[in-house]
Every structure is written in structure tokens, then in C-alpha cells.
Write a structure and sequence with these properties.
It holds the Pfam family Peptidase_M56. It is a single chain. The protein contains twelve helices and eleven strands. It is an alpha+beta fold. The strands form four sheets. It has a four-stranded mixed sheet. The protein is globular.
Length: 348
């Protein structure tokens, strides 16, 4: 195995290809309804592994590039001097990359601090029903963690914040007990599924590869898939009528004058309404109503995952490399005190 600039570039190319495949399947409502999101999540994992472990095998098939790669290679290896310091272009590229990571990381930390300060200003509108419904769900799910619940007029969408001892925040909407059960159970499923940890990891991953425009598609699809997965976990044992009531509770939140104030969003929280994109919300509704939990879908999922894994393994056996032709006819060879000039099959 070998790690070099070309194996890294190849890993980024394959990572972007996987992103496009993920985006294709993520937008197919029927696919998710029939086969859930497990195969898509598996491909997401493979995509992350592929770009992190960016090596190639010695027996990999080399695809020679006569135009693009030579130009790129000459650019990154271009040598210049800066205040008597000899540098190559890739030194500047790496410096910009690292500075970008640091800036984005600092911004995330500052946003988190700001978010915590904002949460501390929220005034809790105490509601006995909130505590009662939360206690019932915690007991039924055997959750051993302390979970708080706050209802406030400062947000427009339910959310859960925290990793070990989270807090559920509810907007100031007059929910029925059934609606409360659906919404609180949804938020708790984000906690049980470790979704906040996954979102934090994705944000770190996004910061590292900030220069890749495809990473933003990847992060958005990942967030939507987590939300769909949470919907499916929440409604897995519901009847069709209960599913409709569950979706009505989400629709009630959507009707709650969402333009009145904007909820400050960070990656350390999971939200019932994670997007203003009507297509994504509509997709969630369609998948919940049409989801198929039949056992045969498990075998098809396994088959799809095997195909994705074969593609993942195959990606390591192809690599692009620059290909050069000698500018002049003839080959010059020099070693020690002997010098040979071979031209037109004659030795001089």
C-alpha cells in the first residue's frame, strides 16, 4: 500500500462519486420507503472511510493522464522563494487548508458558546403535562439518563440539546397529550440514536474538507437521512392511523408561524423541523406513510450493501497518474565518468 498525492486525489474523486450516489438514492422516496435508510447510511460510512484511508495498492491499475494531471502536478510542485525561503506551491495549499480548518473550528466553538448563552435566557413555561408525558416515555423505553424538558416562546421547533443529560425544548404551542407523546418520543429517539454525536462528527468532517464543494451536499443529505431515520424509528410500531396523527403533530408545528422568529441552530442539537425546504419535509411525510417493514427488504438491503462494498473495494484498484512524453527525441544517460548519447539507435 502507498499513500501519496495521487492516491489522496483519487480518494477525493471516489468520495465525490459516492456523494452523488447517496444524493441520488436519498431523493428516491420509493427506495427509502421499501428499503429504509440502512444501505444509504452504509454507503455514507464507506464514503468517509474511503477519503480518510486514501492509499492505493501496488497492483492498482494506473490510468495515465496526459493533460490534466501533468498540469496539476506541475502547479503544486512549482517552486518559488519568499524572503529567502524556498517553498513549493503545495506548502501554501496545505497552509491555507489548515488555516481554513482552524477558522471554521473556532467559529463553531463561538457559535456553541453563543447558543448556550441564548438557551440560558429562555424562560420556562412550566407545564405539568410535559413532565408527565416525558416520564411515561422514559419509563416505557427504560432510559436511565436524566432528561429535562423546557417549554418556551423563544423557539419555533421542538429540539433536543445535549449528549449525556439532554434537555428537550418545546415551542409555546398548545399540544394535546397525544401530540406531546409523538413529539417528545421523536426527540428522545434522536438521543437514543446518538444523532447529536453523529452530527458533531459530520461537522468536524465538513470543517476538515471545507474546500470540497461536494461536502455541503453530503452534510445536508446526512442531516435529512438522520431525520428520516428518526421518523421511522418513532413510527415503527404505529398503526396507519397513528402515523397520520404523528404527521399532523409535525404539521401543527409547521403552521406555528415559523417566520415569527428563527431558531438559532447548531450541530449540538437535533430539531423536529430541520429544514425549510418543502421537498424534504414532504419526503418525510411520504416515507412515513409508505414505509415497508417486511422482512424481505432486509435481504435486498444486504444485497445492495454488498454491491456498495464491492464498488468500495474496487475503488482502490484504480489510480490516475500524470503521463509525460520526452520533449526531444533521444535518451540521455549519465553515471559516474561515463556518458552515453543514444540517438536513432546509434551510440555516441
Amino acid at each position: 500500500m502507498d499513500i501519496n498525492v495521487f492516491s489522496f486525489i483519487m480518494s477525493v474523486i471516489w468520495f465525490n462519486i459516492f456523494i452523488l450516489i447517496i444524493n441520488f438514492f436519498r431523493k428516491r422516496d420509493k427506495f427509502i420507503s421499501n428499503f429504509n435508510v440502512y444501505s444509504i447510511l452504509f454507503l455514507i460510512l464507506l464514503a468517509i472511510i474511503r477519503v480518510i484511508f486514501s492509499f492505493d495498492f501496488k497492483n492498482a491499475i494506473i490510468i495515465n493522464s496526459e493533460k490534466i494531471y501533468p498540469i496539476f502536478y506541475n502547479f503544486i510542485t512549482y517552486e518559488f522563494s519568499l524572503n529567502s525561503l524556498n517553498l513549493r506551491m503545495y506548502n501554501i495549499i496545505i497552509l491555507i487548508w489548515v488555516v481554513g480548518i482552524l477558522i471554521l473550528t473556532i467559529c463553531d466553538i463561538l457559535n456553541f458558546i453563543k447558543f448556550k448563552k441564548i438557551l440560558n435566557t429562555y424562560k420556562n413555561i412550566w407545564n405539568k403535562n410535559n413532565e408527565t408525558v416525558l416520564g411515561e416515555i422514559i419509563k416505557s423505553q427504560n432510559i436511565g439518563k436524566k432528561i429535562n424538558i423546557v417549554q418556551t416562546e423563544n423557539i419555533n421547533s421542538p429540539m433536543i440539546v445535549g449528549i449525556n443529560n439532554p434537555t428537550i425544548y418545546l415551542p409555546n404551542i398548545n399540544f394535546t397529550n397525544e401530540e406531546l407523546h409523538f413529539i417528545i418520543f421523536h426527540e428522545l429517539n434522536h438521543f437514543l440514536g446518538k444523532d447529536i454525536i453523529k452530527k458533531i462528527f459530520m461537522q468536524i468532517f465538513k470543517n476538515i474538507f471545507w474546500w470540497n464543494p461536494f461536502i455541503h451536499i453530503f452534510a445536508k443529505d446526512f442531516d435529512n437521512i438522520l431525520e428520516v431515520q428518526c421518523d421511522l424509528r418513532t413510527t415503527k410500531h404505529m398503526t396507519n392511523l397513528e402515523k397520520k396523527d404523528y404527521l399532523k403533530s409535525i404539521a401543527k408545528v409547521l403552521r406555528n408561524d415559523v417566520n415569527k422568529f428563527e431558531t438559532y441552530k447548531v450541530e449540538v442539537a437535533s430539531y423536529l423541523i430541520n429544514t425549510s425546504n418543502f421537498y424534504d419535509i414532504k419526503q418525510r411525510f411520504k416515507i412515513v406513510l409508505n414505509c415497508n417493514y417486511k422482512s424481505k427488504s432486509k435481504y435486498i438491503n444486504i444485497f445492495i450493501c454488498i454491491l456498495f462494498f464491492i464498488l468500495f473495494i474496487a475503488s482502490y484498484f484504480f489510480i490516475f497518474k500524470p503521463f509525460y512524453f520526452p520533449e526531444d527525441e533521444g535518451i540521455y544517460y549519465k553515471e559516474g565518468y561515463d556518458t552515453f548519447l543514444i540517438e536513432n539507435d546509434e551510440i555516441f
